[in-house]
Amino acid sequence: MNTGTVIEQALEAAEPVLQGEVVDLLGPKDRNNAIVKLARTGQDLGRFTVQVSRIARTSDLIWYRTEKELGDNSNPLLLIAPYLSAKLAEECQRTGINFLDTVGNAHIDVPGNYLFITGKPRPKEPRAPTDQSALRKASTLRVIFALLTTEGLAQQPVRAIAEAAGAALGSASNAIEELAALGFIAGAARKRRLANRQALQMEWARQYPISLRGKLKPQRYACGDADWRGSSLLTDEPEVALSGEVAAAAITQYINPASACVYSWMDRGQLLRKHRLRPDPDGPIEVLDAFWPRADLVHAKAVEPAVAPLLLVYADLMASNEGRSVEVAGMLMERLKNGT
């Protein structure tokens, strides 16, 4: 059990009724796990010494009943558990044990403020991840992409990671647990960091065309312009990002693109009308729905619109199985290794 993740999930589950912040994560040799600060409707409830534990029966609460007021000799004790049943929650209420769990059940009894929430159902137990299953889920690939392309995102709350990835909160939480189990994330909560970054990049690029790309409505088009390379879609459309060969050409000046890959935030029908595109299975322009936030796009020199994140350009080139594309993809991988 990752105590930092459990604490973060419990604090998020308590919102908006209760607002919590981790003040300090304690070392593994400490009896306690963290110090948190709680507030309710703007009223400061003070600091609590957290101990994370799985509670399965009332006998598991005996220690807390005797030690609840000790904490670190200055802060009251707060039990944080993955889940407390209604029976266990009522026992905590009866014996005065403050607690939170990861689904929103809570009991806080401090001078001037009282909170008791119970009856929220047990969370589903996440399936133990394997190399063959965990990284093949579209939601996990979205989370990985966000973590790999957004500086400092790993240290943000799970809710912020979910928003950046365009994933549900539960899916993002499960993805983080799976990545930690596979050795791609180290640390917990605000101290999380990516590990084995290059291996994760390669795995994402390998899995992306299998498990996520097909969900983005990829379709090929021809355009009314005599030279598709001069299409306004590729030269002055701010609602798209370039990938594949046309992006590689803008980045490296090494390849003369034979096709274009475009990710769009615009409604597909509006995009087709604006740039006079017509469906054509052999057309040179492929359009997909963009799956990451539009902010912070990187613009290649003298090129408008923006270029997609380098990792995505690399994945699209590798997925094409074209020799020329694979060659320039190798050049981009060197940039990914160097973080440029």
Topology:
Elements: H1 3-14, E1 19-25, E2 34-40, E3 43-52, H2 62-67, E4 77-81, H3 86-95, E5 99-101, E6 106-110, E7 113-117, H4 138-149, H5 158-165, H6 169-181, E8 185-186, E9 193-194, H7 197-211, E10 219-223, H8 232-235, E11 240-243, H9 244-252, E12 260-264, H10 268-274, E13 277-279, E14 285-289, E15 306-307, H11 310-320, H12 323-338
Parallel strand pairs: 3-4, 4-5, 11-15, 12-14
Antiparallel strand pairs: 1-2, 2-3, 5-6, 6-7, 8-9, 10-13, 10-14, 11-12
Give a verbal description of the structure:
The chain has 340 residues and is of the alpha/beta class. The protein has 12 helices and 15 strands. The strands form 3 sheets. Strands 1-2-3-4-5-6-7 form a 7-stranded mixed β-sheet, sandwiched between helices. Strand 4, helix 3 (86-95) and strand 5 form a beta-alpha-beta unit. The two termini are 36 Å apart.
Task: Summarize this structure as a short list of keywords or feature phrases.
340 residues, alpha/beta, 7-stranded mixed beta sheet, 6-stranded mixed beta sheet
